[in-house]
């Protein structure tokens, strides 16, 4: 059985490591910027998982290496591994960035390592809840041909859906993931802010919107975004959209521009399946300028 060592003991590294241990995969341990962080992660996983004092120590105890740090740290880590003096030929080394490609690990490829990027399409609030979230994650794989083969087989055995990416497509792929997760949270935050303008506190606003948010997401997953779309834009209801804008302009003019930008995206989605009235489309487009 392969043992995996983690460089980086943040939310992603801890969540993935905990998930793997629960699936019976051997995790050698963690190396992090501070020994305390590595020890916290190792203690959470328990068993024989170690906290390593040095990068060299982790490399010597791991068959595969997962780099779960922020993107900016990856190039230096790759250089540090390459200069460590540890034999890494044919060792699988992958980073878990969504946007960056395996080219960041070029110094390791030059030493004969099998390099790749492996990214779970999931959001991780903390290690424990993240380990549960990992169970449903879909993975993208990109990199050296042999590394991709090995990682793909491994992900398949774990029971996950995965797909292969060309390096040139990773930034666009990650943009899609960011919009689906981060921007969604931002939009919900905007909706909560609007609800608070009518006198509700943040907690009550989110609680009131929660059933609508959940139903909308379920409908999108079931029917697709264009067919699941409801509301005034999908209906071509110019009067209601105009009323929204008038209310915002009167009470919170600083919120108008974001409403218009969201409206443009919504209109583009509506035109794909539901809204065919050219006059309504033209008037809505004018309103949202």
What features would you describe in this structure?
- The chain is of the alpha/beta class and 289 residues long.
- 57% of the residues lie in helices and 13% in strands.
- The protein is built from 14 helices and 8 strands.
- It has helices at residues 11-22, 35-45, 55-61, 74-82, 106-109, 127-134, 145-158, 170-196, 202-223, 225-228, 232-235, 238-251, 256-273, 278-287; strands spanning 3-7, 26-31, 50-51, 64-67, 92-95, 114-121, 138-143, 162-164.
- The chain has an 8-stranded mixed beta sheet with strand order 3-2-1-4-5-6-7-8, with helices on both faces.
- It is elongated, with a radius of gyration of 24 Å.
- The termini are far apart.
CATH architecture of the largest domain: 3-Layer(aba) Sandwich
Q: What would you call the quaternary organization?
A: single chain
Number of domains as seen in the coordinates? 2
Mean pLDDT: 96
Number of helices: 14
Placed side by side, the strands forming the largest sheet appear as 3-2-1-4-5-6-7-8
Query: What is the N-to-C succession of helices and strands?
Result: EHEHEHEHEHEHEHEHHHHHHH
- Straight-line N-to-C gap: 59 Å
Name the helicity range.
55-70%
CATH class of the largest domain: Alpha Beta
Strand proportion, as a percent range, falls in 5-15%
Number of strands: 8
Largest sheet: 8 strands, mixed
Radius of gyration: 24 Å
The name CATH uses for the topology of the largest domain is: Rossmann fold
Q: Any low-confidence stretches, pLDDT <50, length ≥5?
A: none
CATH superfamily annotation of the largest domain: NAD(P)-binding Rossmann-like Domain
């Amino acid at each position: 059985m392969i043992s995996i060592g983690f460089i980086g003991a943040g939310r992603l590294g801890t969540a993935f490591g905990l998930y793997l241990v629960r699936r019976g995969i051997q995790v050698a341990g963690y190396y992090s910027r501070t020994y305390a962080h590595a020890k916290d992660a190792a203690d959470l996983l328990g068993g024989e998982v170690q906290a390593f004092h040095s990068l060299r120590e982790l490399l010597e105890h791991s068959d595969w290496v997962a780099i779960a740090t922020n993107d900016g740290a990856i190039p230096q880590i790759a250089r540090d591994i390459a200069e460590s003096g540890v034999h890494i030929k044919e060792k699988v080394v992958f980073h878990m960035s969504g946007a960056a490609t395996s080219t960041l690990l070029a110094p390791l490829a030059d030493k004969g390592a099998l390099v790749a990027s492996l990214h779970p399409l999931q959001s991780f609030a903390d290690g424990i809840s993240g380990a549960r979230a990992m169970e449903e994650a879909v993975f993208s794989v990109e990199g050296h041909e042999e590394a991709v083969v090995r990682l793909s087989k491994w992900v398949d055995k774990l029971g996950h859906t995965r797909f292969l990416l060309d390096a040139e497509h990773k930034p666009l792929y990650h943009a899609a993931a960011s919009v689906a997760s981060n921007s969604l949270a931002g939009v919900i935050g905007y909706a909560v802010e609007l609800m608070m303008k009518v006198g509700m506190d943040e907690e009550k606003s989110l609680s009131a919107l929660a059933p609508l948010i959940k139903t909308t997401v379920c409908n999108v997953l079931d029917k697709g975004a264009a067919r699941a779309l409801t509301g005034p834009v999908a209906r071509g209801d110019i009067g209601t959209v105009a009323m929204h804008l008038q209310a915002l302009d009167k009470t919170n003019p600083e919120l108008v521009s974001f409403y218009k930008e969201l409206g443009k995206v919504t209109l583009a989605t509506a035109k794909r399946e539901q809204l065919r009235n050219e006059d309504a489309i033209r008037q809505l487009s004018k309103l949202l300028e």
